[in-house]
Design a protein that fits this description.
2 copies of one chain form a homodimer. In chain A, about 40% of the residues lie in helices and about 15% in strands. By secondary structure, the first copy, chain A, is an alpha/beta fold. A 7-stranded mixed β-sheet of chain A has the order 1-4-5-15-10-11-14, sandwiched between helices. In chain A, strands 8-7-6-9 form a 4-stranded parallel β-sheet, sandwiched between helices. A two-stranded antiparallel ribbon of chain A has the order 2-3. In chain A, β12 and β13 form a beta hairpin. The longest helix of chain A has 20 residues. In chain A, about 60% of the residues are buried. At the A-B interface, α3, α6, α8, α15 and α17 of A face α3, α6, α8, α15 and α17 of B.
């Protein structure tokens, strides 16, 4: 049976439930801690911030499957199932015996997999009778996805966008506003924390941590609002499991099974979603792929970070999570163009890596990334987001190893987003002005010094 | 049988031949004329400018079908068949008994249907042993598609981009360069015509006509180069027929047939492609849909233009074509953001309209366009190109008529491209700074006064 370039499932094959890998993990889950008491956070702690159903999902380590509400499935049908692509042209160009597949999540207007969770979070907010939600965005993938989701369900969406990003990427702001969202450059004078930061540092370009703090402040202080987050959290990995289940079903149609699964990892939602059903098999002791998480050498949380309790934000307002982290004060070099800037990593991915289920983390430089991205664009006709190009880089490297060894491995990677909003970064690369930046051990020590002191 | 949100064909169902509607048209084809002699152009006239195979296709009014070479079909498989979407959410929001379908051509990296012809033209250039091709681009859809196609086949691509556009849309330039194209703002000092124009008017922002003149000059004066064009020409409509044949096959799977077909029309390639197989049935005297071409009120070539011989460019260097035209000197108001700026119209579409096969041309204002575009984006989760929003506007209007009359019509429209590169125009609309501009009769008379004097 000839495998097509693109394998599509039918709409009936969209999963009817998300998968909660925490129910299967053979580990003592380290709970999130309340930073004031260092006690495990409770639903009561979280409910002023997050929607009730999302709090339940966040704390749920019992139920393997969580039913996807019909309204969310209907939205999924407008852009899912996403295609699983056999990269025939890339295989040919590399002259490799390997088979290369990628799951392409960039085909929707928001341009990335983030929409899978955004629509779920907007739905639960609407269902709980909320007027709207608040969030932060840096590069803008998450903000765009959330603006679309809120536009669809007719609820308000207040996005705090890192000021320097909103100036560098005015079009991201424009598309969010087109979907009805309010975009406020952060820090702003609309919040206490924003005014405080502006008073101390009037010319700051802002940071993700500051934007989180503003978004949380508005959510907890405004009746009818909750805060939502696009990665890192357990609930987000639950929603993103749809990527992996679609992928597995598509491969099974052609009796295929991956030897290697590769995903970029910033907060971890893309790789966490793609690998979910395959990781379930590994946890169950069955045959399973070799898993590789790819991160930028400029923000190497898994390869050079510590497995420790830390804040999820640089503003130190969130609960503490046990994860691989560079310290919440760590900020990648400003010339880092490739996304994946989060100082920590999904607690689920961190635990799986710590326990040896997630086989390898690999850090790559951004020049290698963009080289792979441009090569891929010309060969496969698809311009990837720089984040996704991390996975492309390693997929190409692994395929070239197969060429050397003659092994016919089946390589699967996640192409989490498209690069149409990242042309500025490509132009930097094309012009030769982009450089690699690798933090020194001293740089990292400064971040580790800020880790909270938690005895376990 | 429940009709899914998205109907996909298999790769085997990609048409194996393009359709040449000229072979079926019951009319005396008005040949293109050599402007110097006013005699019909010959293959010899055209061969210094266009690739040989494309000249053949341009002049071919005998062969109904032209086989699609295997190499082009392989490229098509990376992004085709494109989905035919049932707009369930839009139907529900409009509360209409109408069924609404759209063929979505914006899912590839170039963002529009232009890639269908770009890959064909690049292929024939490569096959003829050319080093590269030259072209012009305004907004950038065609230039991006051609850059991708040339990148894939490894031939050079020189794009002359209207200077003001290259300044307003630096990212379009960036993406073309990422695919290996050279982008020169036009007018430039690299050509005789460019230097002449700059000498006369050093501060000009350029025009499409000027860019065409520069691209043609470079093609005919550089060994191993030919000129290519993304719309208007017969060959382009041949390549774009793939849109219509895929659409028809997808509808037939569910026993559906459109009552109305709607497409935006600038040069005519998108509507020409979408309607091709349905128009063939109409020409053959069978039951057929009602065809509507939608154009901007600011550039109303079919609704207010003349059916006359005219130059295809404002530089008056091309052959003369018999078409609906506003005169080659006509330039839409600078605040026109919605694309479709060509002064003329595909000779094929023009003839079909003149002969009554293409039922209706309708002009719409750009405020109506963007209102429809934003509404569609929020309801269907897909941000359209402003050009494509012309078709959306009329599809919505027709669906609302069905609500009034209670008729369950089946409406099909072409969604030719995505709007990710058009956020600047959306921001103008969001801010209220966009206005309608409708040329006066006096404005039009100025354009008509430049029409060449051709006796038939």
């Amino acid at each position: 049976m000839k495998i097509p370039y693109k394998i599509y499932l039918s709409e009936e094959e969209i999963p009817k439930a998300w998968y909660n890998i925490r129910a299967d993990m053979k580990t003592d889950h380290r709970p999130m801690l309340n930073p004031a008491t260092l006690k495990p956070v409770t639903a009561e702690d979280l409910s002023p911030v997050f929607c009730d159903e999302l709090v339940k999902q966040e704390l749920n380590d019992k139920d393997r499957f969580i039913e996807i509400p019909e309204e969310i499935r209907d939205f999924y049908k407008m852009y899912r199932p996403s295609p699983l692509v056999r990269a025939y042209c890339l295989e040919k160009a590399l002259n490799t015996p390997a088979k290369i597949y990628y799951k392409y999540e960039g085909g929707n207007t928001s341009g990335s997999h983030k929409l899978n969770s955004a629509i779920a979070q907007a739905y639960y907010a609407k269902k709980q009778g909320m007027i709207g939600v608040t969030t932060e965005t840096g590069a803008g993938q998450w903000g765009t996805a959330l603006a679309m989701a809120c536009g669809y369900f007719g609820i308000d969406c207040k996005v705090f966008m890192v000021k320097v990003s909103s100036e560098q990427k005015p079009y991201r702001k424009g598309v969010m506003e087109t979907y009805g969202a309010t975009v406020t450059p952060s820090p702003s004078d609309t919040t206490n924390i924003g005014r405080k930061i502006l008073k101390e540092n009037p010319n700051t370009g802002g940071s993700l941590g500051c934007a989180i703090s503003e978004a949380v402040e508005v959510a907890v202080s405004t009746k009818g609002y909750r805060y939502v987050l696009g990665s890192v959290l357990n609930q987000v990995l639950i929603h993103q499991s749809i990527i992996g289940f679609e992928t597995k079903a598509a491969l099974e149609k052609y009796d295929e099974y991956p030897d290697i699964i590769i995903g970029c990892a910033g907060g971890g939602s893309n790789l966490g979603g793609l690998m979910a059903p395959f990781m379930a098999e590994k946890i169950a002791g069955k045959k399973a792929p070799y898993f590789i998480a790819v991160e930028p050498a400029s923000c190497p949380s898994m390869t050079r970070g510590r497995f420790a309790y830390d804040f999820c934000d640089t503003g130190m307002v969130t609960p503490l999570a046990k994860m691989y982290t560079l310290g919440s004060s760590f900020i990648p070099a400003p010339n880092h163009a490739g996304g994946l800037r989060f100082h920590g990593m999904s607690p689920i991915l961190s635990q799986l890596y710590h326990d040896g289920y997630l086989d390898e983390a690999r850090a790559v430089g951004q020049l290698q990334i963009f080289e792979a991205a441009v090569m891929f664009a010309r060969i496969e006709g698809l311009l990837p987001a720089p984040e996704s190009a991390h996975a492309i880089r390693v997929a190409i490297d692994e395929a070239l190893k197969c060429k050397e060894t003659g092994k016919e491995k089946t390589i699967l990677f996640g192409l989490s987003g498209m690069g149409n909003y990242d042309i500025g970064a490509y132009m930097q690369y094309n012009s030769g002005s982009l450089q690699d930046y690798i933090p020194t051990d001293e740089d990292l020590e400064k971040g580790f010094a800020c880790l909270p002191n938690v005895e376990e």
